[in-house]
Design a protein that fits this description.
With 154 residues, the chain is mainly alpha-helical. The chain has two helices and no strands. The longest helix has 77 residues.
């Protein structure tokens, strides 16, 4: 036996001619088309994502309008509350002023009345003192106490 392998001997192998197929650019064309479509898709998605949709814009506008309306309502309620408090304080102060004026007028009237009473009594006494008596002479004012201050006799 020998260590000779006929398959390994290049002289014993049949020579084959290898024909290469004609070059085709179909693969390159398909790859370029896929790349172009991918670039267009990425561009479309990128431009589409930059701006919100019309529905999103409308929803945001509605939310903003609702917030503004709510803030205006809250401000109007607060203004009404302040106006009510101011009106209540004004009414209370007006009532207090009117009560004070009424009390002052009452006190003034009583003081005036108290001053007029002794004055009227004195005027009566003076008039009677200067009135001619039955005999035609005028009597000097008497120093006698008035009849109301004399004790009554039984």
């Amino acid at each position: 036996m020998s260590n000779y392998d006929p398959d390994l001997d290049p002289t014993l192998r049949p020579q084959r001619s290898v024909e290469r197929p004609a070059r085709s650019n179909v693969g390159w064309i398909a790859g370029a088309a896929v790349a172009i479509v991918a670039i267009v898709a990425v561009t479309f998605v990128a431009t589409r994502m930059n701006g919100p949709s019309a529905a999103e814009q409308q929803a945001a506008a509605n939310a903003t309008q609702t917030e503004v309306t709510g803030a205006q309502s809250a401000q109007a309620a607060q203004d009404a509350s302040v106006a009510a408090q101011t009106a209540a304080q004004s009414a209370s102060q007006s009532q207090q002023v009117a009560a004070d004026q009424s009390a002052a007028a009452r006190a003034g009237a009583m003081a005036s009345q108290n001053q007029q009473a002794p004055s009227a009594s004195q005027s009566g006494q003076d008039a009677s003192a200067t009135t001619p008596g039955r005999d035609g002479s005028s009597a000097p004012p008497s120093s006698s106490p008035s009849p109301s201050s004399q004790p009554s006799q039984p």
